[in-house]
Amino acid sequence: MVNAQLFLIYTLGSVVAVIVGACTVYLALKYHLRLPVWIPMATAIVLAVFLLVAQHQKAYALRDYADFTVWRQVIASIAQGHVPSSTLEVGLSGGTSAYFGVHFAPVVYLFSIPYALWPSVECILWLQWLLLMATCVPLYSFAKRQLGKAEYGLFAVACLVLYPPFEYIHLYEIEMLRFSIPLLLTALVASESGWRYRYWLAIAGALLVREEVSLTVFVLGLYILLVRKRRLQGAITSVAALGYFLVVTQIVMQQLRPGQGHVAAGSFSELGGTMLGVALAVFTKPMLVLRQVLVPVKLANLFMYVMPLLLVPFAAWPLLLIASANVGLNLLSSSETYTSYFLYYLSPTIPVIFVALIEGIKIMGRKLDTWKASVRLASLPSCGTRAIVLGVFSAVLSANVFFGPSPLSIQFWVGSYRLAPFRTERFHYSQYIVTRHDRVWEEFVSVVPKSSIVSAEQHLLPPLFDRRGLRVFPDIAGADFVVIDKPFPLKTGIPSVPGSWDGLRKNPQYYYDWVEKEPSKWYLVAQRDGYFAYARTRSDPSSGTRRP
Questions:
Q1: What is the pLDDT of residue 94?
Q2: What is the mean pLDDT of each run of 10 residues along the chain (548 residues)?
Q3: Using CA atoms, how far apart are residues 81 and 79, in angstroms rounded to an integer?
Q4: What is the DSSP letter of 269?
């Protein structure tokens, strides 16, 4: 059932953004409007700095959860000379702690050397920010070349930094799929510009981001082969990408996670749960596929990827077909979150959209100039391209107000303004404020020995990354320490403990009693400001490690 308030917010915000963009195009055409170059420059710089600062404040305010912990464990294990591994991932997805059996993401090795020199949260956040913001370089270059002016390149960069999905990706903890954005954009720009060596380097890097990126690269190869008519380049790209995908998913990952299938298989269980089953279902179960795809929430989220850009990417629709593998795969999932514009699953689609945006501006700009000539306005300077650029900039700025997480947005200032029924994510400014309670945790965390296996609430896990083993509370099996934070409101459990996903938030004391009312198994080690640390007793046979 569609939430009436959300429907009103999204309808109003979308209509306003499109009308503002369209009116800007009209006024720019009629009055030959220009905007000073410093406006997009200032917009891009200020928002880029905000994204960096917000990431740090979010970490300091204990607003990162399991994903951040998993990836810090993986990065730390590589920096220490071990195979990529995470003890927390064992409890989240089952099987081995060797992370490449869950997702094959060799690009994470880029973090290992800097992290070995500077082992900190700040190192990870700075690297993530730098890699994502590197997307601006090929985008600026491509827009400048295709549209003919440097100022248009600056507007394109400003549109990217204002683009709500790009901002949400920055602010969502950390994972590797997002790094397909700069690499795929570089590959797309190199392909359109004829830069062969840069193209192949970017393609190689994109394949190393995560296993499913190879499907987007496969379709890119088909596009080059069939649309651009560069047969050799397209054929090599597609064959290499498909071969890489099959070797990684059917051999390498199976060896690292034997007999368990892909970690996301459960989301495709209705279509067979295996890659072959899903592929066959597309042809043998068309009605089931349509029911999976034509879900209003999924389609609305896809709309939010193009609406802020005034739908201009559709003017270069053949380019958008490159995103079909990424979009199609996530539409087939039973999970609505896989198409959410708040998350990172459609990261490989974003560079495709922005290359199509630049080409779409070029196409529509020429059509507007042709139209002007046809209605006897040829004496006016040609400004169709400028009009579309300003229209897109106005639209994405308006969309950011309604749908973004930045200080320009409504939700940043108004706590009751909600864009989705988030469980743990909030984008109100209060989420970036470090409280006295948060600072207490900096000292309290030392109570837990590094040799222990600890079960803790999700927001407490990142600082505990270097303990011998991690579990998400209320999964206390095999743990010899339990840490809870009673005042924290945004609690979330774990699917492996039935009922806890919502239950820990609705009735946390029920789960706390598993420890607090079992004095024969647990004893209180320390408490402060609502934090409680319990250790398992020596007499409890289920202890993961004998306590002294």
A1: 67
A2: 83 97 91 86 95 96 92 95 90 75 92 94 96 97 94 96 97 94 96 88 96 96 94 96 94 83 75 75 83 91 96 96 94 89 96 97 89 58 84 97 96 92 84 95 93 94 94 92 93 88 91 94 95 87 45
A3: 5
A4: G
Element (H, E) at 117: helix 112-117
* Final residue in a domain of this structure, among 355, 388, 416: 416
Q: Please report the pLDDT score of residue 172 as a whole number.
A: 93
Same domain as 494, residue 451: yes
- Say if 225 falls within a structural domain: no
Q: How many domains does the chain have?
A: 2
Two tokens at 282?
A: 């597309």
Alpha-carbon dihedral 17, 21, 26, 31, rounded to 10 degrees: 120
What is the per-residue pLDDT for 538? 78
Contact 395, 389 (CB under 8 A): no
Residue 18 CA to residue 94 CA, distance in Å, equals 46
CA distance 33 to 480: 67
Query: Does residue 374 lie in a domain region?
Result: yes
Helix (H, G, I), strand (E, B) or coil at 104: coil
Task: State the pLDDT at residue 174.
Answer: 92
In the chain, DSSP finds a helix count (H) and a strand count (E) of: 25, 5
Judge if 442 and 409 occupy the same domain. Answer: no
Range of the domain at 482: 436-536
Residues 235 and 321: their CA atoms lie apart, in Å, by 17
Q: What angle separates helix 324-332 from helix 213-226, to the nearest 10 degrees?
A: 140
Q: Which two tokens stand for residue 154?
A: 């600056």
Given 416, 451, 466, which residue is the final one in a domain? 416
Both 389 and 461 in a single domain?
no
Q: What is the pLDDT of residue 544?
A: 46
Are 58 and 162 members of one domain?
Answer: yes
Angle, to 10 degrees, between the axis of helix 349-374 and the axis of helix 164-171?
Answer: 160
- Shared domain for 443 and 519, answered yes or no, is yes
Same domain, 496 and 397: no
Q: At what angle do helices 150-162 and 384-403 cross, to 10 degrees?
A: 20
Asked if residue 253 belongs to a domain, the reply is no
In a domain, 378, yes or no: yes
Q: Rounded distance, CA 72 to CA 210, Å?
A: 17
Q: Give yes or no: residues 148 and 46 share one domain.
A: yes
- Give residue 547's pLDDT: 38
Name the CA radius of gyration of the chain, rounded: 25
Q: How far apart are the first and last CA of the chain?
A: 55
- Other Cβ atoms closer than 10 A to 314: 15
| Shared-domain flag, residues 523 and 452 | yes
Q: How far apart are CA 5 and CA 412, in angstroms?
A: 18
Q: Which residues contact 442 (CB under 8 A, 6 or more apart)?
A: 463
